[in-house]
Amino acid sequence: MRPFWRVLAFFAGAYVLLFGILGFVKSKSDLGLAWTAQDGLPWVLGLKANPAFSLLSIVVGALIVIGALIGRNIDRWINLVCGAVFLLASMLMLLFLRTDANILGFGVSTCVVSAILGLVVFTAGLYGRVGSTRLAAAEELHRHHVPAAAKAEEPVVLEEDVEEAKKD
Q1: Is the pLDDT of residue 86 over 60?
Q2: Mean pLDDT of the chain
Q3: What residues does each domain of the chain span?
């Protein structure tokens, strides 16, 4: 399941990155909007964009894409953090929708899309942990409730594997 979720995280990050680039170009250079404009925002890939939200999307989208390309355990932490931030931002922006505090120019559709992207990226982070093959074998035996007498050979869990798992 890990490769599937890693690809989904990559596509989610690519969507956010593309939205940010197109939104920034359309809102800043074409329309000359203020950084935190709330009215007259252009529609980009189904969402409204102001320059501040577009720039933030570029940074977060690039971070998710780079994490998905690097892989290993780095993408796990990037996806967990970015997914949680997306979820939190979508909930907070629902509170600020029709107020002056809506500095990112969110609409209801943006909140819904942010929540969906947050769930996808966060779930990819949950599936992103990589361990050693010895630890995977030991966990597989434990999962299938293989009794100690039926095991042909006990898996060897080295001290370095335990330390590596603690780092993650």
Answers
A1: yes
A2: 84
A3: 2-126, 133-167
